[in-house]
Amino acid sequence: MLRIRADLVDEIVAHARREHPNEACGMVAGPEGSDRPERFLPMRNAAADPDYPGLPNTRTDPETGERIEELRFGDTFFVFDSKERLALHRDMTARDEEPVVIYHSHTQTYSEAYPSAIDVESALEPHAHYVIVGTKDPVRHELRSFRILDGVVTEEEIDVVESYMFAHTGADDVPDRD
Fold this sequence. Notes:
Radius of gyration: 17 Å
Shape: globular
Helix content: 10-25%
Oligomer: single chain
Distance between the termini: 23 Å
Strand content: 25-35%
Strand order of the largest sheet: 3-2-6-7-8-9
Largest sheet: 6 strands, mixed
Number of helices: 3
Structural class: alpha+beta
């Protein structure tokens, strides 16, 4: 189960809304080994950059059965900027943190908040919660969390709390960080 503060969920959803129609992405870091998301770290979706060359993709048209070759960009998937990701990992290491939540949004009307094949392939953090925010509805969002290990996707419950102080997520003598 993912236990996460409401203010962090609000920041994740706000980031997803700001980046729509492109997919937003980022992490929420927490103390190593705590499984406690603390520090919101929005990142840039490199696939949404104007100079991104595109990801080759082949799909089948559901009406005609015709194979279509196309390029995919930031509105259909995300790529962390490699320099930004390296800098964040160095910063987390210096702070004795790790990525507790890795999040991104799904923006397309045909796409539910469920990990795509690309999402599963790029899931490199075995202890992280992978959160997907569906933003296809302009008013309501869908928020789901998954564990992804060795290509196996397992959905988990999300417990949104106001504070960790009384949520039984570890040492209650450690106050929430601002």
